[in-house]
Amino acid sequence: MMALHKVFYLTMAEYSSLLSDLSENITNEDLEQLKSACKEDIPEDQSNNITSSKEWFSYLEKNDKLAQDNLSYIEHIFEISRRPDLLTRVIEYRTTVLKISEDDEIDTKLTRIPSAKKYKDIIRQPSEDEIIKLAPPPKKV
């Protein structure tokens, strides 16, 4: 039982660290975009009261949209908000801390969001055949 508590606290610390890291990379302008992306889930009067990314994460946690082992909602929000930098951090946490790999992903909560299946392509490296080779830019005369 003691070992289980230790793992929980380690994961909790990693989760807190993840949220802190994400918060540092979310400006006020970003926050407005993120809140807009989840306007169906946050009533406007409550959305107006959220003035920091920490408050946004807290709101999502209180409303069962975010937990240390359930990140699919923010992955989706970061994807539709075109924030691959934030999305990548969440995926790294999921694959290293939670040990949910792309193979396990099919059986997790992630499949509730149809677009989550696309994350597999972000995690895996493309093969040589999939890499698009660009021609060098034309030389100026």
UniProtKB/TrEMBL annotation:
Keyword field: Apoptosis, Cytoplasm, Phosphoprotein, Sugar transport, Transport
Cellular component aspect of the GO annotation: cytoplasm
Location relative to the cell: Cytoplasm
Domain DED: 14-92
Keyword Metal-binding: no
Pfam family, one: DED
InterPro entries reported in the protein's UniProt record: DEATH-like_dom_sf (IPR011029), DED_dom (IPR001875), PEA15_DED (IPR029546)
PROSITE patterns reported for this sequence: DED
Alphabetical GO biological process terms: apoptotic process; MAPK cascade; regulation of apoptotic process
Protein name: Astrocytic phosphoprotein PEA-15
Species for this entry: Amphiprion ocellaris
